[in-house]
Amino acid sequence: MKQQGIFRIGFWALGIFTAASFAVLAFQQIISAYYQPVYIWITLAVAFTTGLFLFCHSWEKNLEFLKAHKMVAAAIALVVFWFSYMSCNTKGAVCYQEIAPSLPVNLFRQRWYLFAAWSAFWFGLLLAQIVRELLRDLFEGIGAKERKTYAVVSLVLSLVVLAAYLSNAQWYQQYDKVYSIDSGWCYRNIFPNLNYYDIRHPIMGELAFPVWATVTGILRLVAPANQMEVLTAILMQWLNIQTLLLVGLMLHKLTGSRAVFWLYLCSFPTLLYALFFEKYQICTVLLVFYVYTVCRGKKYSSGAFILSVGTMPTNGFAALLELLAPRPWKDKLRRITVMIVGGFAALVCMGRGFLLNLPLAVEQLGSTHSYFGSGALGLRERLYSVINLFQSCFVALSSSAEGRYLWTSITTGVTWMGMLLLALMLLGAVVGWRDRFLLVCILWSAFALLLFVGLNWAPHETPLFSILFSWAVIPLAKRGIDWLIEHLHLPEKGTYAVILAAMLTVNLAQLADVNRFLATLG
Q1: Which residues pair with 188 in a beta bridge?
Q2: Single pTM value for the model
């Protein structure tokens, strides 16, 4: 009894310590423009409660993981230590006097960053278990041929990025010069900035900064100072390539089709974002990860949804998947409630509690929409834009360079290729809607119509977002192709060989043209 009492006291003492550490970590992520007392105290209270809840529900799992994977735990500890050091230097410039009336202590001192590091380590253990389970689930049942394909494609794309970045830094430095891609902005302002904030990507900084800090920490030990910039970009882009390949593997597992995997790899969005430094790779892999967890009945799907929406709020449309789940309505409503509550808690714990001020959030969304919207376009032009988006999910659109390298005729017309792909998608939807994942693809493709036609969100540059939709468009069109192959008695392997060869020919030629344009930027 005495031992049990001591254990209970120790358990709760460590839990309170972890919760307090979590509260300090959350405070350090508040943006300086929102240091109002109400946001500070709400953040500390919600983060403390959330931290205690996570500790109580993860104690046994984390303890078992620590015992079984000591080297992984040590690696997480090193990453967290470096992350804390970099965070301290990043946030240290904040003037404490700005918030002195709100708190009795200066939580920006180095010792408080070390204190906050404990909860980051605890959360890192949880994240490592989820990633480990995902990778194990993805690679189980995949043959040696697919594993070799993954390795070879990863190596080839990595070598291409290495050559491209060393020969022309514009691949990761250009800003809004090619297809409205913000490579330079991402490299200089998002990934190195823990407290980056944009209503379109509320918690992107919190997810990207630890990875960036880890990469730069490793490079500082082995790389010459004059090569730090380009090597950081190359390693970060290598990780982006892995996210794209993981999406391909998840599509493979969800459809059971090797052809879908290859169509996704050869599509223009995948090849384009394998080369350009951007943030949409993270948004896409988290969205597809959520879809994957729902379709395969994984228990951490709620957390996957929260991360997905945190990186891109429009991903919240995917919550409709919860209504399609084969479970009682009572369970569906309970899960949706958990996701909503958990989402608000995550926003607060990541320093975004000010978004609970709904008028402020609506104002930010409104100003963003007014900037990216295009009210001058009519219904027909917006429909053209979406059909061109669907085409761009497979092959590159006609483009030209006049100061900037942009698509031509997005809103003024469509090609026969775009109409053919739309027809294949509709055919795939008709014959495959009973398949749960294809039903998800139908809903997400319909969301493109709602977003770009109904809500008028940036219809003049829809192909920029093709990476966010290609994962759904490709399986739908592939199902339509399969129907034609079956009923027209076409050779399956031969048909897909021709399609893949045509896609690669068009897409690689377009990327070569993009490379020539980048060379003119100097």
Answers
A1: none
A2: 0.92
